[in-house]
Amino acid sequence: MRTAKITRKTAETDISVEIDLDGTGRYDIATGVGFFDHMLDQLARHSLIDMTVRCQGDTHIDDHHSVEDVGIALGQALADALGDKRGIRRYGSCLLPMDDALVRAALDLSGRPYLVWTVDFPTQKIGGFDTELVREFFQALSTHGGITLHVDALHGLNSHHIAEAAFKAVARALRDAVETDPRKADAIPSTKGAL
Ligand SMILES: [Mn+2]
């Protein structure tokens, strides 16, 4: 079973994450940050990774710790559920339009964290949500999931659309990368023999 459950408690956040890589995109998300919940719904729905996420965080300060720490826990859950990565496709990419926004995501489940992020938001806020936290989330996901992740916004006028297109693009790329390849189901997809 390619599943994982992570709990993570600090002075700033108390988080539990459960995922199933071979799911159908079911989600049950409650982070205390409304816009972030909306984004994680997209991540689950379009990756077909089932996700249950709970976060009780210090949102009386701001949303930073909650968003970053959920990224850490989700990254850890992905790495845990992937195990030795036997049989996976490893790479995934997606060019995703959402109205004015066009976002490209390309990723490698390499075990080597690296984030390239060229996404500019025309506004600092989406409702009460700080747009700079979108990068914080993907940085944490990349670092703790061992993911080389490139996200580039090629076009966009509306911050909500740009953020949502980014989450959907990464979701679709993840869907391809975590999927097992029936032609190489027993092999670890690296000439090194390990990822
Ligand atoms: Mn939306």
UniProtKB/TrEMBL annotation:
Pfam families hit by this protein: IGPD
Q: What class of enzyme is it?
A: lyase
Q: Which source organism?
A: Rhodovulum visakhapatnamense
Q: Which CDD domains does the record associate with it?
A: IGPD
- Which reaction(s) are listed as its catalytic activity? D-erythro-1-(imidazol-4-yl)glycerol 3-phosphate = 3-(imidazol-4-yl)-2-oxopropyl phosphate + H2O
Could you tell me where this protein is found in the cell?
Cytoplasm
Its Gene Ontology biological processes? L-histidine biosynthetic process
Keywords for this entry? Amino-acid biosynthesis, Cytoplasm, Histidine biosynthesis, Lyase
What is the gene called?
hisB
Q: What is this protein called?
A: Imidazoleglycerol-phosphate dehydratase
